[in-house]
Amino acid sequence: MATTKSAQNFSNVFHHHYAKSPRLNIAVAANFAKPLAAIASDFTATTGIDVSITTSSSGTLYAQIFHGASFDVFLSADTASPAMLAKNNLIHPDNVTAFARGRLALITPNASTETKTALERFIAETSGKFAIANPKLAPYGLAAQQVLHNTSLWNTLKDRLVKGKNVLQAYQYVKTGNVKGALVAYSTVLAEGEGSSGSHSENENLEGVSAPTSGTILNKPAGFDKTGSSYIATGLHQTMYWSLIDESLHAPIVQSLAINDNDAAALSPNVFDSINSVGEVVNTGSLVHIKPASLFVQYLLSSSVQSSLSDWGYEGVISHHHTHVRATYHIGKMGADSWGM
Predict the structure, then answer these.
(1) Dist. CA 112–CA 105, nearest whole Å
(2) What is the pTM assigned to this prediction?
(3) Hey, which end of the chain has fewer CB within 10 Å, N or C?
(4) CATH number reported for the structural domain that contains residue 60 in this entry
């Protein structure tokens, strides 16, 4: 059984070795900002390494790094931006790796959780517009386009589409009532607080998803006028229904990162997955070769963090066997309180 002392010993190894490490500067695409804040906080508690976070679009962050910005790690919403840094010889080619897979959710005025049925009802029963992110600009938009093609509804719906510059804008269109349906990021729906609820699915294709897979949100129709600090209703809130999209309907929405270094990062073996039966790091000598940026990426790719991504609406990209020791000494640190769930 785990003890507070052994868990503290595990943390002390990192605090001692990285005591003089400078603050890590991490750049993150807006869609992953909330999970990163929680992950970074726990990383700092575990290692003693402070983290500073800069949030913007992947394209903006890529441009800043291209022109010399001193970010240590760049978490992108796509695979192309980190790959371009390597292609342009700005970083070592081995310093690019996937860290998460995004998921799509469908929002419509009807309660069907089967994607094609819900879309067909939207087309038949609703005259309004439908929002997706621009497929030419956003990975989530391309995945949304694939869903419409794979349900044989693209040609029927394409003239009613409104394309946001990113997936968050597509969500805002439906949230404000400017459109009547949308394909958006599952993470955004889960992050919606007030007026949102959800339930788990019995669909076997969605097994392993720990967060709700369907639910409701309340939008704020465009008929609301703001007076001072309050809204005067000129229309009524409308209940909208959302459901998680089966991944078989689109290609994986993969997010990659880049470590901003011309030297190859030390990412394997993962020290956070190398803990003995009393909660100690198996090979402390390996820490000599692991720079703080690499250590953070190892933490992000560790089995406990990867398995926790589903709470935020993402899937991990690394599959690990979760031993009892691993669960005891690390997952316990990342419970509901520390994750803000």
Answers:
(1) 13
(2) 0.78
(3) N
(4) 3.40.190.10
